[in-house]
Every structure is written in structure tokens, then in C-alpha cells.
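Please fill in the sequence for the structure shown.

STRUCTURE ENCODING:
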């Protein structure tokens, strides 16, 4: 069922990022490679879609969508219990870590008011950015702070890796606490309208009360807080 262009792009991605297609021992969802099994998985998905009155083309495995930022895959898979079908997931095209920065200036956490197209609303959040091939995460972190809030990094503390959505995305981001010497003007061209300095405990209250909803910011603040890096006593 798969069309040749999708098959080609799928194989190219599998060759470039083999770690995303591995079947580790005991994998509950197995990615299929054998052509006969792939065809059987597609047929099973098509039958399920047909029974629900949904488009049969959604059963095609391979590359479902691709642009310069994102690729959507439908992997042919064997589910727990032996059933066959397809499973969709998103892959960032860079194939590198994104970065999230929790800036701290004179003991205060620096957050930005950022308009996000996906939710169509303003969010209070930590600066962040896509990873770039060949650029170390630490260098990318410093660049994002300069570009978004005009800040120069004094010290970076690695807070580890975050998988923001293990259900549908392969994304990994690196979290950092960034001690900065000063903060400049926000980059309005990025949709940032203001920079706010908040005591760490205030940020915790905003998270607790559901005012601050950005998952990256919540994760960075939580890691820094639990490691005692925010000077809260």
C-alpha cells in the first residue's frame, strides 16, 4: 500500500537515525521491517479504519507528513498480544536536543511572556529553542538567551534531559539553569512582549495554582528546586 516516495523517505530516516527504530529486548510495540509483515500491518489498520468509516489512506505506513521542522511517521508495528497496525509519531528534523533555559538573575527567576501560535494565547515560560545539528547544547543555550532576552550567561548548570511527550514524539530537550549577569529587552519579533523577574517561591505558586502551564518551564523549575539550586532556603 505504501507509495514509493514515502517508502524512500522512511528508509532514509531509518538509516540516518537508527536509534529511533530499534526494537530493544522486551519492546511492547515492535517496529516491523519485513515487507510481508508491513503489508499485513497496513491491511489490519485499513480494515479498522474502514469499520469506523474513516479514510483508508490513514492506514499507509511510512512518512505521513514532512517539512523543514517536523516529520510525522506511521510506523508498521506489532502491538502487545500480537495484533498488527500502525502507530503515528512525530520526529523533529534536526535530530538534536532542543534547549530550555531557566535564567536566574540576583536570585530571581527570569520568565518571558510569549505568544504561542499552537494554543493561540500568551504563556509565561522559560526561554527555549530548537537544537541545531553540530551545535553543542551549551552553545545553543547561550545563544537563545542572547537572542530572546539580551542576557549573557555567567554559569550554566545542566539539569538533564526531558522527554516532553513520550506518547507521540521522539523529542528530547536539555534543561539548564542559567545564571545571568543582566537582562535586556525582549525580542518582539519572536512574539515576546515582556520579561518578568519572579522570586522562586512565586514561580512555584504559579505552577501549583495552574497559572503557569508550560511543561518545559515546570520541569526546569522543578528540577532546579529539588536540587536546591534556587536559594529558597
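FILLED IN BY: designer on duty
SEQUENCE:
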Amino acid at each position: 500500500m505504501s507509495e514509493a516516495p514515502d517508502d524512500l523517505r522512511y528508509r532514509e530516516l531509518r538509516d540516518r537515525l537508527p536509534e529511533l527504530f530499534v526494537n530493544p529486548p522486551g519492546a511492547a510495540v515492535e517496529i516491523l521491517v519485513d515487507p510481508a509483515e508491513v503489508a499485513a500491518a497496513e491491511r489490519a489498520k485499513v480494515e479498522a479504519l474502514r469499520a469506523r468509516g474513516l479514510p483508508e489512506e490513514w492506514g499507509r505506513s511510512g512518512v505521513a507528513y514532512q517539512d523543514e521542522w517536523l516529520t510525522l511517521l506511521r510506523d508498521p508495528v506489532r502491538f502487545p498480544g500480537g495484533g498488527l497496525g500502525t502507530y503515528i509519531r512525530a520526529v523533529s528534523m534536526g535530530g538534536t536536543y532542543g534547549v530550555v533555559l531557566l535564567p536566574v538573575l540576583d536570585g530571581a527567576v527570569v520568565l518571558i511572556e510569549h505568544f504561542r501560535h499552537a494554543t493561540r494565547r500568551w504563556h509565561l515560560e522559560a526561554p527555549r529553542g530548537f537544537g541545531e545539528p553540530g551545535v553543542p547544547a551549551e552553545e545553543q543555550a547561550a545563544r537563545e538567551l542572547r537572542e530572546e532576552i539580551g542576557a549573557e550567561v555567567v554559569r550554566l548548570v545542566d539539569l538533564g534531559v526531558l522527554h516532553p511527550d513520550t506518547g507521540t514524539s521522539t523529542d528530547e530537550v536539555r534543561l539548564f539553569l542559567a545564571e545571568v549577569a543582566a537582562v535586556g529587552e525582549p525580542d518582539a519579533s519572536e512574539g515576546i512582549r515582556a520579561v518578568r523577574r519572579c522570586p522562586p517561591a512565586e514561580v512555584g505558586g504559579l505552577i501549583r495554582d495552574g497559572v503557569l502551564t508550560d511543561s518545559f518551564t515546570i520541569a526546569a523549575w522543578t528540577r532546579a528546586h529539588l536540587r536546591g539550586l534556587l536559594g529558597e532556603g
